[in-house]
Amino acid sequence: MGCLRCKKRRVKCEECAPCGACQRHDVPCSLDRSYRYVPEKSLSPAATSSRADTTQPVRKLEEDGTTKATTAHPPFLLLSSPKAMPADYGACWISDAELMHHYATVAYRTLSFSAHVAPTPMSEQRMRAAAFLHSPVKRQNDAAAFYSDFKDTHQNITYLPDEAKYTELNQDYFSATSWLGPACVIAPKTASDVSDAVKALVKGQIQFAIRGGGHMPIPNAANIDSSGVLVASASLNQLILDDEKETIEVGSGNKWTNVYEYLEPYKLAVVGGRAGLVGVPGFLLGGGISFFSNEYGRASANVVGFDCVLANGDIVSATAENEFSDLFWALRGGGNSFAIVTAVHLTTFSLPEVAVGEISYEKNVAEKFLDSTYNFAKFGSEDFKAGIEPRVQWIPSMGDPSYHAIIFYNGDSAAPSSLDNFTNTDNMGQASPTFRVRPSMYN
Q: Which domain, by its residues, includes 10?
């Protein structure tokens, strides 16, 4: 990705859109874009005439909700091929922003809150101002200024790069690819802290990232560089079982190991992650495939409520029965773009004992391993209490692939017939098996 000429000169390129570096070096950009912004002064008389001839009437939204025809002259040319590109063209980000705004103001008509949005013309001057707001230097300065202001009122939850707590929070990820170094880290301890942070970030137009458990290895999924602020939920780690022991409140800073260990003395469990180091919020907001899913469904289907902070800083509880039922519906598998979840309320169920563990197999079992996996998918999964997570690993330095499986059974049997192909040593030779009956998922 990115402009080839930028890469050859080792110049930072925006990758997804022309960044202007080529223009500064007086060379053409290799990025092939469908739309190119062309300043009026660079157009030939023929081109200007052609563009005027193709101008089409558009509909303008009036304040009373009605529309009327008007004429607009889009500030870009539609180029059917790279050969049609003018020799002297301006920065393409202007047309990109114009197109983005046009898309947003058309798409808004499909939304229930469309009355809050109206299409307005965007001038080149406003575009340039918007581009400045999002320039890397401006973002870094804004983030640094935000830190100094927010630190004054929230000293015990705000951390700068020279503090040990900052390093701990910036590196609390499954993969080191996510150690991006934000301008500062906010580690809220309550929903009110989250609300204060959101209000301040929105007011200052500061980019920020949210981190739950940090299991996603994609660098920008749950962190941000020095152009923004990281809001880490590690301190939102409350675990509260209700009096009837039917639901549990789980703070969004927890990982599934914390939840399973907390519930073990009560002989209870929830539909949670198969790996204990996975974070609670991201797993649930994405749907959540669990070893318990054959019996109880996706993890998100077992959520009875979300405690959230909205984009305006409001703190709300979303359930299937209250005024935020649409938000509740969206959060149960719809992703993390609707609100910041500070806690979830999950249904519990009885779990006296469970059989779980990993088995590694000898290297010469490829065909048997694949057959066993196929047969379990076709027949063994009829036993709703059983589950497997088969895994084939190949590390070049170690030669041949290796074969492993995490085996699960919701019961007190370490040798259920549905898992016989994986547990029977006569079928596949085993090495260091840990599959056994346990008092909880991770004990």
A: 1-31
